[in-house]
Amino acid sequence: MKEKGILIRADYGHIALHLREIMEERGITRNQLAKRIDARFEVVNKWYQGELEKMDLDILARICYALDCTTEDLLEYIPAKPIKSK
User: Fold this and answer.
1) 32-62 pLDDT, tens per residue?
2) Which of 13, 23, 26, 33 is deepest in the core (most CB within 10 A)?
3) Beta bridge partners of 16
């Protein structure tokens, strides 16, 4: 069996967060969202800035509930660009 090494980000793509766009569409601030979901501003700000390293599914569910949206509205998988061979 061929062993796989650690991948770099470009090998498997990434997840894009669309919280900022949804909040702007709804006219809600980070402070307002933090209060609605009972979370610290810093937590909401990391989501807003797209600076998550690990995703808290409870926070994700609270955001979806508070903003009346789905996970598909908030998250998007961006596949890696294929490497061109010479």
Assistant:
1) 999 999 999 999 999 999 999 899 999 999 9
2) 33
3) 76
